[in-house]
Amino acid sequence: MEFIVGLHSLVRWLVVIMAVVSVVRYALVMAGKAQPSGMDRGLTSGYTGLLDVNVLLGLIIIVGLSISAGQVLMVWIEHMTTNIIGVVVAHFFAQRAKKIEDPKLKARTNLLGVVISMLIIVVGVMLVGGWS
User: Fold this and answer.
1) Cα–Cα distance between 112 and 21 in angstroms, integer?
2) pTM summary value
3) In whole angstroms, what is the distance from residue 55 CA to residue 87 CA?
4) CA angle, corner 48, sides to 8 and 116, nearest 5?
5) CA 94: distance to chain centroid?
6) Mean pLDDT, to the nearest integer, of 82-95?
7) Exposure string (b/e) for 40-75, b if CB count within 10 Å is 16 or more?
8) What is the pLDDT of residues 96-123, one digit of tens each?
9) Residue among 130, 80, 88 at smallest CA distance from 113
């Protein structure tokens, strides 16, 4: 179980890195300082993909801890629910952005998806003690 917890923690930091890179990239495209490219879709796919992997790892951890502890703590459920909402938000904005032709509007939609989902995820992480 410790290995999966460590992997969950590692993927969390990969999500943060991907979010920062995405925010910078989408802001540059919106400002006209960078040309839109296939990298934009790749960033969105990478971000949502890492979120999906971390949700799966988190679910494995919750099931494993619940079995070994013989109980389910409410904080685990709150953490899981909040973060799943953040992942759904990220996927919602990613799907909307796919349908947009205007590069600046697409970048804005992707930017909003990353920022809003990360704000929700930060709340979810704070529920279990923060980023330490």
Assistant:
1) 14
2) 0.92
3) 8
4) 100
5) 11
6) 98
7) beebbebbbebbeebbebbeebbeebeeeeeeeeee
8) 999 999 999 999 999 999 999 999 999 9
9) 88
